[in-house]
Design brief:
- The active site is at 36 (proton acceptor), 182 (proton donor).
- Substrate binds at residues 9, 73, 153-156, 184, 204-205.
- It catalyses: D-ribulose 5-phosphate = D-xylulose 5-phosphate.
- Pfam families: Ribul_P_3_epim.
- This protein has a single domain (5-225), classed as Alpha-Beta Barrel (TIM Barrel).
- Helices cover 34% and strands 19% of the residues.
- It has helices at residues 18-27, 56-63, 80-89, 105-114, 133-137, 164-173, 190-196, 205-208, 213-225; strands at residues 5-8, 32-38, 69-75, 93-97, 118-123, 144-148, 178-182, 200-203.
- An eight-stranded parallel β-sheet has the order 1-8-7-6-5-4-3-2.
- α4 (105-114) links the parallel β4 (93-97) and β5.
- The protein is globular.
- The structure holds D-xylitol-5-phosphate and zinc ion (ZN).
Length: 226
């Protein structure tokens, strides 16, 4: 059985108090801290998401205050540029999007590993699951798949249950893989995700918006365990 990892998305935290928010989440029972890295740079006529969040300097500052696993989700068009800076800053996991890495994913995975991080690949709701199979079947594979359950860019959106077909297909093919879901997860959607086979659960607004975040985290862990 794959271990549950509950990862509050720090995108919903108070950025002005990031260190204490991180500490609070760990105290509430979080396994990982999910860090959403987005750039809003017009590059080759497009940007990956219409938002701008944090980067390596913030990860570096946070690392001084916590030993927690920092699960970085790169919503950028040029993830390769961020591997070394994030490795040096103390990131633990580096998950890039398959849509922007068609030509260089082998180089990316190799570089992520040599910079001491765990490589993961993510896909947007419109991207078929088959696109990540080559990255899992390679001799130097990614070690996690992040299935987006909302369009990436913002917290607080509605969970897309139809994405569970992707999770089911992945779990069937890769019984011990870390499968992460991200977007709209909380007490009312966790059972669907857990039943499909997801074990790494990102949750932003449902955790930070709850009067008792520890309760929400423990409820999600129980759902994954059962
Ligand atoms: C969206 C981000 C998510 C987001 C999730 O692009 O990848 O990690 O913070 O937030 P909730 O849980 O509120 O949907
Ligand atoms: Zn995310």
């Amino acid at each position: 059985m794959v271990k549950p990892k509950i990862a509050p998305s720090m995108l919903s935290s108070d950025f002005a108090n990031l260190a204490s928010e991180a500490e609070r989440m760990i105290r509430c029972g979080a396994d990982w801290l999910h860090m959403d890295i987005m750039t809003f740079i017009q590059r080759m006529g497009s940007h990956f998401v219409p938002n701008l969040t944090i980067g390596a300097p913030v990860i570096e500052s946070l690392r001084k205050h916590t030993k927690a696993y920092l699960d970085c989700h790169l919503m950028v068009t040029n993830p390769l540029d961020y591997v070394e800076p994030l490795g040096k800053a103390g990131a633990s996991g580096f998950t890039f999007h398959v849509e922007v890495s068609k030509d260089n994913w082998r180089e990316l995975v190799q570089k992520i590993k040599s910079n001491g991080m765990k490589p993961g690949v993510s896909l947007r709701p419109g991207t078929p699951i088959e696109e990540v199979y080559p990255l899992l079947d390679d001799e130097n594979p990614v070690e996690m798949v992040l299935v987006m359950t909302v369009e990436p860019g913002f917290g607080g959106q509605k969970f897309m249950p139809e994405m569970m077909d992707k999770v089911l297909a992945l779990r069937k093919k890769y019984p011990s893989l870390d499968i992460e879901v991200d977007g709209g997860l909380g007490p009312s959607t966790i059972d669907l995700a857990a039943a499909a086979g997801a074990n790494c659960i990102v949750a932003g607004s449902s955790v930070f918006g709850a009067p008792d975040p520890a309760h929400v985290i423990s409820l999600m862990r129980t759902s994954v365990e059962n």
